């Protein structure tokens, strides 16, 4: 289903780029002479029938010829290559925080069902799910940047991906585009620490909502698995509780969590527009926000197609992981 889904997205984005948005917006400004507009339209193939334009559109997508990005001041392909790794890095840290916090909380909540630990975990999950992202991001900026600096304590960076002054004295050569990884590969621990400090607040902001979802899913799935006959048999056989919980129960309880995590990763890799805008974190969300402001149809459409492709690809990988988690599942 991956191919028809992506093909359907290309049809939708082509229609939107030609009917709702102005495909000339990235190339024409108020200062462009009127006599040049028909020339530009002809060079872009916009004077051709719609079906011909769509074939050109597919060709350009496949060859990565996505046009010029006014938001990034470079070609769209270069803009995505520049900003997408930042989103990958932010998503990775956010998902790690989500799983390290959400799964243990869900397990504790299930094992201590209807006890104080369970109630506290459920309240925490509801707060995380209900809290607006923009409010949480601004609150974290105020608390851990402004207030801590006023108190004379250590303050976390609130904007950007790194300190430009520090980067000038400790430059990092681009290898993968993942700043923390590239810094570690080159032994530049100063920039690795600085990049990590810059990513903490936006990663926590993204993770907070997802922690609540993972906690609730883990709890409900664990409760269901713990009631199964094979778990009762394992306990009656005298196996230690740790083995029963982590070897037999947890693995089967992870299928809904893996599904949810796949959806989270797909969505976050598409670009967390609100979070990246609040923290001025130069990722795909920040780029798409600028593209909307500039009416940059090329960047917007490339962002939508890329998001859809990443989303369906991650969910395909999740489907394949099911068979590893549960050998009863066969394809």
Describe the fold and architecture:
With 331 residues, the protein is an all-alpha fold. It folds into two domains: 2-69, no CATH class; 74-325, Orthogonal Bundle (MetI-like fold). It has 14 helices and two strands, in the order H-H-H-E-E-H-H-H-H-H-H-H-H-H-H-H. The protein has helices at 2-20, 36-43, 50-62, 76-111, 116-130, 133-150, 164-169, 179-185, 189-226, 229-236, 241-269, 273-278, 284-293, 297-325; strands at 68-69, 74-75. A two-stranded antiparallel ribbon has the order 1-2. It is globular and about 85 Å long.
Tag the structure with descriptive keywords.
331 residues; mainly alpha; MetI-like fold; two-stranded antiparallel sheet; 14 helices; 73% helix
């Amino acid at each position: 289903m991956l191919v028809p889904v992506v093909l359907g997205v290309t049809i939708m984005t082509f229609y939107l780029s030609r009917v709702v948005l102005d495909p000339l917006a990235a190339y024409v400004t108020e200062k462009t002479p009127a006599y040049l507009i028909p020339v530009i339209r002809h060079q872009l193939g916009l004077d051709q029938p719609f079906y011909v334009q769509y074939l050109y559109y597919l060709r350009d997508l496949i060859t990565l010829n996505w046009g010029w990005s006014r938001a990034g001041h470079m070609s769209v392909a270069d803009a995505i290559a520049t900003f997408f790794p930042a989103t990958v890095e932010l998503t990775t840290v956010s998902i790690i925080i989500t799983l390290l916090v959400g799964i243990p909380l869900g397990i504790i909540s299930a094992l201590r069902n209807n006890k104080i630990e369970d109630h506290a975990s459920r309240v925490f999950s509801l707060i995380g799910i209900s809290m607006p992202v923009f409010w949480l991001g601004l609150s974290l900026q105020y608390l851990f940047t402004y207030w801590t600096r006023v108190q004379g304590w250590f303050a976390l960076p609130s904007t950007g991906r790194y300190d430009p002054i520090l980067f000038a004295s400790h430059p990092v050569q681009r290898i993968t585009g993942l700043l923390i990884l590239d810094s570690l590969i080159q032994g530049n621990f100063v920039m690795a620490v600085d990049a990590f400090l810059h990513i903490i607040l936006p990663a926590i902001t993204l993770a907070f909502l997802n922690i609540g979802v993972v906690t609730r899913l883990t709890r409900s799935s664990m409760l269901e698995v713990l009631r199964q006959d094979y778990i009762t048999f394992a306990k009656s056989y005298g196996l230690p509780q740790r083995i029963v919980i982590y070897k037999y129960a947890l693995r089967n309880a992870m299928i809904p969590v893996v599904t949810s995590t796949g959806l989270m990763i797909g969505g976050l890799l598409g670009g967390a527009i609100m979070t990246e805008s609040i923290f001025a974190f130069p990722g795909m969300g920040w780029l798409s926000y600028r593209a909307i402001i500039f009416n940059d149809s090329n960047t917007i459409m490339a962002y939508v197609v890329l998001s859809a492709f990443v989303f369906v690809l991650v969910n395909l990988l999740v489907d394949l992981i099911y068979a590893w988690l549960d050998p009863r599942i066969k394809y």
